[in-house]
Structure formats: C-alpha cells, structure tokens
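Support case: user asked for a sample of complex input and structure output to validate their parser. Sending the pair below.
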Amino acid sequence: MSEILLQIDGKEVKASEGMTIYEAAKSAGIFIPTLCHHEKLTPYGACRVCTVELETAGRTRLVAACVYPVERNMVVRTRSVKVGKTRKVILEELLAHAPDSEDLRRLAREYGADADRFEKEPAFCILCGLCVRYCAEIKQKYAVGFSDRGPRREIIFIPEVASKACWDCKECFELCPTSYAQAAYVLTEALAFPDRASASAPEE
Amino acid sequence: MENDQIDKIIEKHQSDASSLIQILLEIQRENRWLPKDAIERVGERLEVPLSRIQHIVTFYKAFNLLPKGRHEIHICTGTACHVRGAPRLLDSVQDLTGIKPGETDMDMKFSLETVGCVGCCALGPVMVIDGKYHGKMGPSKSEDVLKNYE
Ligand code: SF4
Ligand code: FES
C-alpha cells in the first residue's frame, strides 16, 4: 500500500492512496467544514463548502476536499484568504435557498456570509443529496430520489415506497441540513397516504 | 398499455437494467407517453428502484409523463419564426385547440408544444404536426390545417 506525503496548511501529512483530501486532513487533525459529506456514504461533492486551495506544479485551483483524492507532493491550503472568500459566497448562495437552516447559519457566522446578499429563492432544499444517498446506500429503500434537473431539480418521496418504508425509519430527517426532507415527507404523506399516520401497526 | 406489450419490449432487451432508457423510449414510441403503470412494471421487471426511474424520466425532456393526444403540434418559436409572427400563430392555435403548450385536450386529439428552431427559418412561422411541416402559417391558415386532423 503506497503511502502518500502531502502538505496541508504547511503541515506534512501522511495519507494512503485513495484517500480524499478531507480524510487526510481529518487524520492530521485539520478541520474542513462539510455539509453534504457523510462518512458512511459515497462522497458526492454537491455543496462545495469543503472547498480548499490546491497547489500543484506552481498553480493553484479550488477543489472539493471531500471528493478530491490525495496525490503525492500536493500542497493544500484550507484556510487561505481565497478559500475563505469562496466559502463565503457559496454559503450566501445556499442561504438564498434555505435562509433558516441552522447548519448554514452557523457556517455563515464563521465566514462572515451575508444571508441577504442574494435574492431569496426559498426551495428550502439545498440538494445536498444526503437523504437520497442515505436511503439508497444505507437503508436500500430508495424511498426518496431526485426529480427533474437544473433549477427545477428537487427531491421527491415516491409515495408507493414511502408509505411502506418510511414510517419506522425517518432517519433522513436528522441528516437533512435544512429540515426539507421532513417537510417533503410530511407533504407526501398528507397527499398520498394520509391514513398511514393514524394507523398504529404496519401490515407487513 | 398492456403488460404483455411492455414485457415484450423488456424481453427484447434481455431484461437488462442497463437498457433502461432504451426500453422506456420504446414503450413511449408505442404509447406516445409513459403511464405510471408502465414505469412500475419496468421497475419491477428490471429490479430498478422507482426513484431512479423517476429521476431519469424527469431528467430527459424526451419522456412524456402526461398523456399525449393523437396528433402532436409543435410550433416553432425560434428567433426567425418569432419575428415572422409565431406569437400570433401560437395564440390562434391555442384558441382553436383550447390548450396551452405542454397540454393535451380532453378528447386526446391534440397536444401542443413550442420548440426552438426547427431549421427551416425561410418558411416561418412554422407549425409541425406529427412530423409534417406547415410553413408560412398565419392564424387563418392554421385553422384550415388543423381541420384536416381527426
Ligand atoms: S431534503 Fe435535505 S437532505 Fe435531502 S437533498 Fe434536500 S437539503 Fe439535502
Ligand atoms: S462536503 Fe464536499 S462538496 Fe459538500
């Protein structure tokens, strides 16, 4: 197993092949903020809050630490001015969608992001994919999925599946950084299987 | 659409989940749109979760999840047709059929869509019905054309 040496925030870090920058940083005690990352799930790279500056061969660029694999001799900066500014704008954009998300507000305070910078377009969901991936990868129920694309992309619960799979799980509610997963579920339940809530025991 | 018709299409592709899009397109070719039952059947037979199929059929604009009429009207609203009077044509077709773009009438006779350029700007404004091009369309001419469809 090849060992990879890299530098993060001026510190020499040993990592093994296949690790992401986020994992390498974590093992060295360097904290990188994340939103869509979950250690049990396949990295997804949706929120970009984990953006770091990467220097290779004298050039720097911004990459998502939670998906970018470590390479020999790479130089990573997680706290540069550029990183700070970038995260600030990303948070401001996310806040336009989910202005009341506690997770977002906490990060916004840290990075001085202005929640009112962009006109509000509250979709409430920031499409981090945690609910979708958790349901598919861990629970293997596929009760919630993405629908449509571009600005119309959203998560939807599939009523036929949700009415059977969700009542005793609801684990995605906790994961969701904005509470939208719960809202979407409750709406689906109210519209598609309102009796489920009152029924005490499942049939199967 | 009947299940055995759907099954036949699925079997043609050896019930292979990697042919999912192809299968859905073929079902749509026969049925003009994708009913929910058909989607469920495909999911069941290919062992693909419904949420995945839902993502795919909403992602690609080629899939119709709403019923389509017997005749599909496409009105070009590209730049050339637009300046040649596509908005007026669209208005009159909407009045004649009683439907807006994206809709199908109650008798399932017409479905209406607008499209970007269809590539024959010199004929604008252009209306395409079931793949047949009708050029230099104005409000009254479009009425004559629509009359020919049952
Ligand atoms: S509902 Fe919540 S967990 Fe699911 S994608 Fe949206 S923000 Fe993420
Ligand atoms: S945590 Fe890396 S993109 Fe979301």
